[in-house]
Amino acid sequence: xxxxxxxxxxxxxxxxxxxxxxxxxxxxxxxxxxxxxxxxxxxxxxxxxxxxxxxxxxxxxxxxxxxxxxxxxxxxxxxxxxxxxxxxxxxxxxxxxxxxxxxxxxxxxxxxxxxxxxxxxxxxxxxxxxxxxxxxxxxxxxxxxxxxxxxxxxxxxxxxxxxxxxxxxxxxxxxxxxxxxxxxxxxxxxxxxxxxxxxxxxxxxxxxxxxxxxxxxxxxxxxxxxxxxxxxxxxxxxxxxxxxxxxxxxxxxxxxxxxxxxxxxxxxxxxxxxxxxxxxxxxxxxxxxxxxxxxxxxxxxxxxxxxxxxxxxxxxxxxxxxxxxxxxxxxxxxxxxxxxxxxxxxxxxxxxxxxxxxxxxxxxxxxxxxxxxxxxxxxxxxxxxxxxxxxxxxxxxxxxxxxxxxxxxxxxxxxxxxxxxxxxxxxx
Length: 428
Prior knowledge:
Elements: E1 5-10, H1 19-23, E2 26-30, H2 38-51, E3 54-58, H3 76-97, E4 101-104, H4 108-116, H5 118-132, E5 137-140, H6 145-152, E6 156-162, H7 186-199, E7 204-208, H8 214-228, E8 232-234, E9 239-243, H9 250-258, E10 263-268, E11 272-277, H10 286-295, E12 305-311, H11 317-324, H12 328-336, E13 339-345, E14 352-355, E15 370-373, E16 377-381, E17 384-387, E18 392-394, E19 397-402, E20 408-409, E21 413-414, E22 421-426
Parallel strand pairs: 1-2, 1-7, 2-3, 3-4, 4-5, 5-6, 6-7, 12-22
Antiparallel strand pairs: 8-9, 9-11, 10-11, 12-19, 13-14, 13-22, 15-18, 16-17, 16-19, 20-21
Helix pairs in contact: 2-3, 3-5, 4-5, 5-6, 7-8, 7-10, 8-10, 9-10
């Protein structure tokens, strides 16, 4: 599955939220036609430099009064010069900042009129090439005059879809000013993003930086695209591993993947998920499954809640307190005063990694592991805490003992499973 990038139209508003540059993979920067000036372009380019965002030119009809959203009758040779001038303004500033300009996308009415009229399309492409060269990617509609002109000029071309715009049944955009033309519900935008990205008809999705709720919209759309672009690694013929983004709820990942036909087993860790299947009947691409999970609005069923009674008598309790510069009572209080969640299960069957430990009592594993840790010992390793289900070797800092704790039940297996919420209750 090819990566689908998020592009955002930026540099158009005086009070632009810089968070948009953290979500955009390509910033289409207004360069003076419909909006923008030297100050705004410089600010946008510097934000691209800070956040690693790719910079693109966003030329338009020379029509600031109407924000470039009304068609202007202009001769192709005049239009070519206007586009070249706008792109050159951005290129000059970008050179000073040290940010390459590798993309270009027409704005507003010019985007649509040039895509209908080959002479205008050639004028736009020729103006872009005059100032930016041929080593750029031109962003435009999936088909039409702009695509043909860009190809004729030898430019790479990215087919665009709009996550925050409503569409007609034929796939064309609902004109601005009509109901549902501009989407403001981030849930609908997420669903739009998933549908378009999975369709195979787009290479990039757009969010308009001047739309209401643009930051939330961009965050949600980028989350979907990040899931769909997850790295996968084959593990033989019947398994693969995916790198998981932080925001995906791990229990949801487990339940969604295990429910897929053809999946034999799923193991979810803190950073990866491994999917096992019959090579003769492979399941759907797991990235598609997780992409749907990223847009699901229905919450998971409430996670199980377990109270574990513990006696704070571990052999490393005093040394942990000394290392973090707190009293033993403070360490106990900080450990027992928060609710934990099972983030992953391993290295022993039933050994649950619980997080997050308060940063004030976070300590690394022991430099030399113990050859034998008693069953039900409670330890800390970094930002994780856990309970040894059985006696085993181990290098966690032992601070307590779970009292009357049963790690496994005959009818249901391990007590602490992915997503289980855990609270430690101190007993004397």
